[in-house]
Structure formats: C-alpha cells, structure tokens
Specification:
The structure is a homotetramer.
Chain A (H helix, E strand, L loop, with lengths): L4 E7 L5 H11 L4 E7 L4 H10 L7 E2 L2 H9 L9 E5 L5 H11 L2 E4 L7 H14 L3 E3 L7 H11 L6 E9 L13 H6 L2 H4 L4 H17 L3 E9 L10 E8 L4 E7 L10 E6 L2 E6 L5 E6 L4 E5 L7 H5 L11 H20 L14 H19 L5 E2 L4
Parallel strand pairs in A: 1-2, 1-4, 2-3, 4-5, 5-6, 7-10
Antiparallel strand pairs in A: 7-11, 8-9, 8-15, 9-10, 11-12, 12-13, 13-14
Helix pairs in contact in A: 1-11, 3-4, 4-5, 5-12, 6-9, 9-12
C-alpha cells in the first residue's frame, strides 16, 4: 500500500482562486496532504495563510528557495514529495528549475513559462533530472474529454478533417486590471504574463484540448489578435486559422471580451465518418454525431464509456462531476505515478495520463507563433516547435 | 383592400426541396396564388408538375422566355405579378434580366448570380427598371434575427467588437454528387454553381446574417477554403477571419463536411456592453448576454420584443415558428410592397424589410473575395465590393 | 389529379389567433382554397373580414345556417367541400350537426363539444352520415409525435409502464378575463367553455397526446383541480394520477397559472426496454433513451425515421418545422382523404391519420371524469367512456 | 484558528459508491481528516479497507460499538470528533443512538432510520444530548438550490401556488437485485430498507428539496406506488399529489424504472409573480421565469446571487461544481458549526445551513404517509408528522 504523499505549495493564498483549486484537487482523493508552503512574499501574510490551512508554523516559508532548501533537509516521508507552483507566469521557471534540480517532482500551473526559450530549457532540465513534471491543463482531465480522445483514437470518427475549438470569456470586457483586481493586473502585464494575455491564459487551453483530443499537432497557423479595451497592452481576443497534421484544418478562437460569456471552452471535431462535440460548461455530456443516424449523448459515469474515461470518473452517470474533479484527475494520476516512482516501480500506463513538460512546450510555442503571425502580413506561420 | 397577387415560377418541380418551400412560403399568408410556371425543360414533365400543382394547362410553360412573353400579353390582374426564380445559379441572371426588362418584379434564390460581374449588371438593371427584387436569404426572415438586429441598432450591445458566425452541415461529407443527387451535382459543378460551392450556398447565408444583424459591412478577410472529398472541384469547407467596419472583428466558418451536423447556422455578437446568440435550429429563442447579470432568453411571439420582430411573427410565444414561416416573411413583405407599388403607393417601411439586389451583390462579392483570398499568400484581401 | 378543395369557415376573424392558424394550415400545401365564411355575427364585421381575406362578398355570410344552406345550393366544385368550425365550445355541436346533416365534411376545433352528452350525439351523427370529421388536436400532427407513436407500436420501448405528460402555461396567472381579453373570457366562463377551463383547453391536448403516443387508453384517474385566481369559476390548474390499459400508470398535469411558462406540452414514456421524451417547444427533436447505452436524439426530416414520420414532414433535418406545419398535417391528411372520398375512392391508410370524432369523445369523457374525480373523496374514478 | 477535525466512519468501504462520496466531501475543504473507521463486519476486510485509506491499523475497527468505545477513550484532539454513518437504513438508529449517547456528533445518510418511530426517538435523543446531527440530503447543498430558496423567501415569486418535483431514474428497470448488486439488494429488501424502496431512497430527496426550496410543509397527499418489476416486494415507482401549507398544491413523482434516465431530480415552483426551475443534472443553472419578460438564466458563482448561494460555491461562474461539492457543503457547514461548538462558541448562522434530525423526521413521515395513502381508497391522507 502506498503512503500518502506530502505536497508543498508556492503561491496560492486564500484570495487566489486557483490556489484553492489546487488544494481541493490534491485533497479530493485522500492520497496527499498539504505539508508546507510559501503563500506570500510578506512573512506575516504567509504565516497567517499557513495557519488557516492548518499547517504547523515551521513548515510555512517566505521564499521558495528557503522552502526547497529546508524541506530537502527533512527525512523522506516527512519532507514534501512534490511542489505545486501557483504563481504568475514569469516566476514559474526559476522555481521549477530549483525544485527539479534539488530533486523534487513538480506540478506547475499553465502557461508553463514566461517565454518559449524558458520552456525549452525547462524541458531539458526535466529530461536531465528524470523527475515527474505535471502541467495543470485541467480541461483535458474531464472524463469525457478522455472519451473524445478515445473515440478519435479508436477510429470512430474516421480520418479527422475539421476542428473547431473556442474559448469565449467576458471577464475582461472592461478594464478590470485598473480596478485593483490582482489576477487581471498580472495577466495583462507583459512583464509578468509574457507575450500574450488571452492567448496565453486560455488560448493555450484550447490548443492543448485540440491536440489532446485529435492526437494531431498544429503545423501552421494564421492569427488575428486584438486588444479591444483601450490602454491594454496585450491581446484580449484572438482568432486563428489552423492547419494540422494529416491535412486536417481548424479554427481556434479565444476571447476575454465576449461580454456575457463565462467560461465557454468548447470543441467540435469532424472526421470522415462522424463528428463529436464537448463543452466545458456541460462537461458530463459528449455528443457523438454519426452520419444518417441519430446523434448520441454519451454520458460520463456510464458502463459504455472507454476504460480511459471510466478511470477518470468517480461517480455513476447523473451525478455531475465538475471542474475540481477534472483538476483532481491530474493530481491523482500524477500522485499515483509519483508513488510508484518513489517505490522504484514504473507507473501504470493509465496513471501517466496527465499533461507534461511536453504539453508546456507546445503551449509556449503556440503563444510565440500566434503573436508572430498576428504581426505578420504573411498568411501562414509555421508552428515554432514541431 | 389589395387584391391577391399572381405568382409565376421558373424551376422548382416537386423533386426540388426549395421549389416547394417557395410555394408554401408564398401561400402561407393567403396574399398570393400560384398562377403559372415552368417546372422542367421537358414539356411533358413541366405539364405534369403544373397539373399536380392545380395549374390550368395553358399557364404551364416550357421555357422562361415563352412564359415571360405569354404572361406579359395577359391583362393585368390575370397575368403573373411577379416571377420566382428557383433554378441553379448559372441560370439566374438571364431569367431575372428578361423578367425585369419585360416589367416583372422578381423573387430570386441565392446566391444571386453566377459571378460578381453578373451581380453588378443585375443591380444596374434593377435600378434602371425601378422594379422590386427580393433575394431569398431566408434566415434573416426569422423574427428573432430581426430582434437581434434591433438589439444592436438600439444600442443594447454597445459598440460591436466581435462576431462569430458559423454554418456547419454534413450533407456533403461523402461524394453525394456521384450518387445521382441532382442538387449536390450542380452545387459542386463550377459550370453551374460558380466560383464556390460551400461558400456560395451557405457561406453567403452566414455573411448575409452577419451584416444584417450587426449593420456592419465586412471590409477585408482572410480565407482558407478546402475541398476535403476527393475529386470534388469546389470547396466543401471554409474558415474566414473577418474585419468589419468600425474596428469590429470576426470569424465566419461554413462547412458541408461536418459529419453529423444538419443545418447549424449560428451567430454570436459581442459588444462593449453585452452579447447575443441565435441559432437557426432553435429559432424561437434569442439569448441576450449582459455583463454581471443573468443571461436572458428572449422568445419570439412575446409582448416584449421589438415592433420589427413582432411584425414578422404569426403566433404567440411557445408556438414554434420555423423555416417556412421565416421564408414566408420575405414573400409576405415583398408582396405587401408590391401590392402598394401596383396601386401607385409607397410601401410601408416595415414591408420593405426583405433582402434585395444589394444583398445579392454583397453575397457575390463575398464569394469572389474568399476565393481570391484562399488562393493568396497575403493575409488580408479587401472585400471586392465595399 | 385531384382538384383543389373549397373550404368554408365559421368563426376565426382576424383577431382570433386560432382562426388564422386554421387558414395558414389549410393553405400551406396548396390543396385547398378558402371559399366562404362567417367571420362575425355582426354583418359589417363579417363582410370586412371576408374582404380582407380576398373573398367575394357573396360568399361571406352572417349566420352558419345561412352559409350551409346557401353553399349547399351551389354546384359541386364551386360550393364549399368542407367547413371548419372555429368558435367557442358551446357553439360547436349545433354547427357540426347541421353541416353533417346537410352533407358537409367537418373540421372542428377542440374540445369537441360543450358536454360529453353532445359528444356522444355527435359521434352518432358522424356514424349515421358517414362523412369525414377531423378534430384539430394539432399536437399529434408533429412528425416526431408520430415517430414516438411508431416507436411504441414497433416495440422499441417494450411494454409501457409509466407515462408523464404535462402542459404548463402561465397565461392565466393573472385575471386576464377581466381585462377585455375575449379568449380568456369565454374559456373561463362555464356557460361557454363547459365543465372545465384548463383541463378542457389544454388538459385534453395532453390526454390526446398520451393516448396517441402510447396506444393505451386511460381507464381510471384521480384528479385535483384548482382555481387559484380569485373569482375564477373554472379550474386554472390540475394534476391527475392516471391508470391506463395493460397496467400502465401515469401522471398528467396541466396549468394556466405556471407563471413564466409559454406552452410547455411535454411527454415522457417509459417501457420495459427504453424511454422516450418529446417537447412541443423543441418539436424537431425526439429523445430515445435506451438502457445502458447513449441516449439518441432523433431528428425530424432525417432518413432514419419511420414512414409515418416522414410522410408528415416537409423539410429535411435542420430546417425547423413548427406549430403551423403540424396543424397543416391534420388539414392535409383530411383533405387527401376527402379528395379520395369525393371521387368515390378509399383514402390511403396514411392519409387517415388525423384525430376524429372518436378522439373528441375521449376528450369530453376526460373532462367529465376529471371534474367528477376532483369533487370526489374516492381515490379512483373510472373514465366515463371506455 | 480552528483545528482540523477527526472523522470516523461506519460503513462505506471502497465498493460503496456513497462511502467514497462521504470521504471526498469531507476532505474537499481541508478542515477534516479521516481518523478511524469500521468498513466491514469482516475483520480482514475492514483492515484492508482502512489501510487503503492510509489509516493506522489501531484506528480500524470491526464493530461500531468497539469503535465508539475505543475512540471515546482517546484524548480530545486525537479521538474522532464526529462519526459518519454510511450503512443500510435498518442499522442507522442503533449506531446513531450509541454515538450520540457517548457524546459524538453524527453525520447520517438518508433516509434517517428504518421507521418513523425510530425517527421520533432519534429526534428526542438529539434534543436530549444537544449534539450536532447532520443528515446528508445532499441535493439541497447545491448553491443554486439555496438561491432558489432565497428567491422564494425574498418574495421574488410571490405567494407559492404550484410545485412540481420529480426524480426519475432507470437503474432498477430490470431486476438488478437478483444479479448480486448489493445496493439494489438491500434497497429492495423490506427488512433492511424499511417500508419503501423508491420513495425512501429518492422520494425523500424530492420531498426534502420541495420543502427546503418553498419553505412550505406538505400537509396531505394522495399516493400511487407501484412495483413494476416482477417479484419485487417494495415500490419502484410512485406518483403523489400534494397539498402544502398556505394553499399550495403540487406533484411529486419518483421512479427507478424510468428506463434511460440517470438521476433526473428536478424542481419547478410557480408563484403569483414568477416561476423557477432547477435540475440536478445541470446544477449550475437556475431558471427564473418572470411574467411578460425574458426568462433569466441565473448561474452559480456569479456576483448577483444571494449571500447564501455565494457562501456555498467555491468557484466563479463557468467552472462547474457538481455532486461532490454540494455534498461537501453539508460537511463543511457541519464541521464549521462543530468547530465552533467544540470551542464553546455559537456557530455562525450561515454555517448551520445543513439538514438535521428534523429533516430526517419529515422524510420518515413522508415515507410512512405515502405508503399508507397508496394502500388507501381515500383520496387524501394527512402527513403523519406535521
């Protein structure tokens, strides 16, 4: 029987939506304890956060360097087993590097780094250290996204022709970054967010979903990014024509100025034989669209879904699973893999189904490519990483 | 009280889906009788069709020239008052020209002509003759499309930023044109369909809907058209980045290879203050998406819709109106305008709300532009008519 | 080739929603002309209505007796071939009787009569005269209601166990009858509506739909009718437990005080093998719910529906048909049957698929039974007609 | 800062769906550790389960008496703080009684007891001990169910007239209890389930939801329970007419033989001014149906919902929360209340929003009343507890 693992966190104080998501996702399945963390650069605040999270004071730190060093000196089983990085983009790389080079496995928020260059370096470090690295592209954690991937893989759609992936949001339809909203402030700040805002934050989710479901890589693209809100330095909307491997074509659009939309990630894939459709806001339904026959509503938690989808659902059909459960699938699979590694075993293949540093490099390449394309007069720009 | 008008038809025999739609749409409101027609180039077939439609044999013709000439010699009130053209694209122009030059008002199926050049000529003929000309871009006939237009016009969305219009179909996912299907055969034949298939047949519906709802014209675009089915000479799928007047941007995609889709025309418009969404397959609902407030489901036939929407609905809310009723709105508005004209009056403004030769020119310009753009390495191609 | 038939109307002036529905439904398929009518008991109003409907003055009458007598003296082919009765309930019987006894086929609005006694008498008259009689229970005219019936009949659900049929509306949530609304006034008036309001107007639609789809008759029921709005003399809401033939059980509820609802007729049927669901406000979709397999969305106008559903659809899938088209199916089938009769032939079986005097008797028995049950302390009351 | 509490479990081994739900719900917010448990009556199995759950062997027990006694001897802070009871109905009472009388707060699965008599006794014990008791009627834990309750309370619907609550499932459409399925076996066994199956398991959820949302108690009812599957001793379907306080009326139906349905709990409430609708399978949407105005889609996690709904949501709009999160709201609120109690404080009012022994008594009274009514010839049976 594997032991319960210890998780350390960098970032993610209580006023951080995504910090609490990471903690809930890690806690859900009972395989992991929050053991230590740095929750703020202000010592008092970090300590207060740690106390609220029931951490002993000696395991609450103020800098990531301090935490990584101190934890490394604790005995195995007591020290943290992996670290979750939940800070703005520009800080990911240094933390991840130090953690990996000190010997800690890493869970990192997306987009992976500040730049494509950092992403390539990080990939090399992961390769060199041989440690586990998970990237929280959480939307591919949904059971029915896995079912969609399985449908494509097993040939139920035939050769893929067309892909439509979209991610409309309306939360930056006004100049939220000028109202004291921290998250909006750093996401729209080129020094902290990197080359893009909308395309980095949610465009990469769409890209990751598209490549995960179809199994096809984007080869070239044509992007039109816009910054609609006055004074905003980075994109808040973008539309992209895609060309993918094996002659497939597609469209990707993401927006933070689509007034009235919440979190409308949606994918449609059409092959020679059938199509499929999935939408994040109704995640327990997957539409399978055959030709000359009724469209089928495939539901999560049923007996007829694939092993992959079944392994990533916790409840029978009709009992909605949501965002946290999908996020928790990344943590669970990562932890199950890490438990095996820590005991010198190979992870089960189904446990290795979580986004890795490779997905992170693809995402950063996507960002770099759409930004270059958007500034170019040429129609097609090759994906910078392929 | 206006008299019931007489309608003549060119094309649209019983095996033509769209021919019977024209007849049902024209008959629905009781303001018009089918009076004469040419239903086939084969005399016996034309006669048999006419008889099945309860027409007297002397009013069933074999060529459009014969019909226009013969009808023109009948006394007013007995002769046809207008002619509906329901034949493949390459035949529209000559028929419409002769009808107009002989003095008959015209209802014409879309796309309007074979080429942009013909469209410009036809526009000039309409202008010269001063006769009424309606183009059956039927989707803008739906009451809630008119409501959407009214919402934009009256400022409920604020300045428009983003447009997403799509029209997925799956009916040409296989090589239907090789199976004896007449409609598929001419639509995929460059000699009869013109420069495009998918973009001409349904892409123009999307373009017309977008410009009608937003009141903004497309100024330049970037298109990627594809022919997925082997051996097909014209496009069966296309994705287009749009730039519109006043800085608005958009995406238009249309497809005939989206396996499992029926007729999924859908539009979403986002302004500075709110968004809207309408889908043809659920036409009696219009979503109004405000910021920081509940999304509203506006329903056709209610007391709270605009005068424009109310005038184009026949039933109270909860009594679904569909494709034929929307189509019939074009006929009804055209006929009400024509009745006024025939009696020397100006039509009521609300009766003039139907697509005209101007919409037809826009559509043909759209086709010509997307085809050119798709073959170009330049990112942006200006709309050829603006 | 059959000739176009002549239709006469009693009632249904332009301010009557249902009158114009009858005319549009009759006109849609081009097999019938409006030939004469009585549109008001006030001579000037009747004439004005007739003129607006393009009728010659000599074919516009002031009383139904006058119309039936006068039309009967016109030669066949010129005189009306059938009469449509579109007046309040208490007037149906006398008009229908005179029309039938004079030799005219009848289309009659529902509920069929003022009382169950009249219904039995009318059934006897129809039997004696041998003439065609159609009742406009229009909701069973939808193609997918016919598909639902076919699914049950062909055993796709197995033996039927459970039925849930509901019809929520909100239009009488306030005292509309006191505001000058004519339709609300007679529907809530026991002298004109009969023993019930909600149960008569829409409860019978639910009952008709339930028996049509399942092929099972209600045998006994337990009703709780309420009049929520102060001062209202008849029911505006009712809930009914049902027992049907072959051990099936069910629930029927109908309401006119369900604030915010438009016209929510919906049916769900569950058998030993599968279930189905259909909703009037989204009529082009029928859900087929198998066990341990994906739910299927069956769409109207597809190639895979039954012959019965196909015969009653006019458009391919994705082109919404609505209320008028379903209503028109009753008219079309009735007219096709009548054309055959007039030419001494037997109608095609598929043309006889419209509600008849039998359905009318069932509806009146349902009204009488729910009213009696609601006043009783006994749990179960047998259907008065079985 | 409160300390993390210790949870003990009776029942809920890994093959128990609901056992793992309890654990995930308790773990989600990080305020509670699983500290001990009895997972099986077989010692080896209980131990194996405990080990898989990372429990030390000395905290894994074989009988509930042993656990309660042993834990009571551990020092506060180390011993369990409350016990969760996740076993078949007939075992609830004895366990809950011993736990309470020993001084432990209790979380108990529903229905609360085997009989109404036990329920009344348990209520007396809770009152006498003054300890906290939570019943896991989890569906009222959803944020938008709380929003619905708030809408009614704050008068947005006006006086309530009509209620429709339904809970269709299809999982017992076949004789699942004969196939080795443990859960189906005890639920359909009168010795373990009590007087009802369907009405006890899911009918009480519908009843609890109805009373929670409307704030009205059921006063009398008329039930028709059926056992459709041959050989089954308890009901597998039931339909109930309801009369509630203040003249409201309603319908409740629940079914386990509705083939093809998963878990379709749905409630509609209609008042004098507006209606509302919520469905468990799409739990992040609440429809507010005003009269003569657009229907509004209220979404969880938005800024415009009530404080009550906001307090019970963890994520911003568009990030679906599901079954586990709703379940976790009961645990979180119970734990927050218990932490306060353990420190001698009064719980915050919003923390006391979880179902209690009172809800349990209502549920058991509902079961007893529907069973009696179903066997009676009288129409109305008074709720046995009112």
């Amino acid at each position: 029987m594997h032991r319960k693992l210890n998780m350390g966190m960098i970032g993610g104080g209580r006023d951080s939506f995504i910090g609490s998501v990471h903690r809930m996702a890690a806690a859900l399945d009972g395989h992991c304890n929050l053991a230590c963390g740095v929750f703020s650069a202000t010592p008092e605040r970090s300590r207060a956060e740690g106390a609220a999270l029931h951490l002993p004071p000696e395991r609450v730190y103020v800098t990531f360097e301090e935490m990584i060093r101190a934890e490394n000196q604790l005995p195995p089983g007591e020290r943290m087993d992996f670290v979750s990085i939940v800070v703005p983009n520009h800080l990911h790389f240094n933390i991840a590097r130090l953690a990996l080079e000190t010997g800690f496995a890493v869970v990192c928020d997306k987009p992976m780094t500040y730049s494509l260059e950092e992403a390539h370096q990080l990939e090399a470090i992961v390769a060199k250290t041989g440690l586990l690295f998970a990237l929280t592209h959480n939307y591919t954690g949904y059971p029915l996204v896995k079912e969609a991937r399985d449908m494509v893989r097993s040939g139920k759609l035939g050769a893929i022709r067309k892909l439509v992936v979209e991610y409309p949001q309306g939360n930056l339809a006004t100049r939220l970054e000028s109202t004291g909203n921290k998250r909006a402030a750093w996401r729209t700040d080129p020094k902290r967010s990197g080359a893009a805002n909308c395309m980095a934050d949610i465009g990469t989710h769409a890209e990751n979903l598209a490549e995960y479901v179809t199994g096809l890589k984007i080869t070239e693209l044509c992007a039109d990014l816009t910054s609609f809100v006055e004074g905003r330095l980075l994109d808040d909307d973008g539309s992209v024509l895609l060309r993918l491997e094996k002659g497939a074509r597609g469209i990707l659009h993401a927006s933070k100025i689509s007034a009235g939309e919440d979190n409308g990630l949606r994918i449609r894939v059409y092959g020679e034989k059938a199509g499929l459709e999935w939408e994040q806001q109704q995640p327990n339904i997957l539409m399978y669209k055959g030709m000359s026959r009724p469209t089928e509503i495939h539901r999560a938690g049923t007996g007829y879904v694939s092993d992959l989808a079944r392994f990533n659902a916790r409840l029978p059909a009709g009992h909605p699973e949501g965002f946290i459960e999908a996020f928790a699938n990344i943590y669970r699979n990562f932890i199950l893999s890490l438990q095996a590694r820590l005991e010198g075993q190979d992870p089960e293949p189904e446990h290795t189904d979580f986004p890795t540093v490779r997905d992170g490099v693809r995402g950063m390449a996507f960002i770099a490519t759409v930004v270059e394309s958007s500034q170019s007069d040429r129609k097609w720009t090759k994906m910078k990483e392929y």
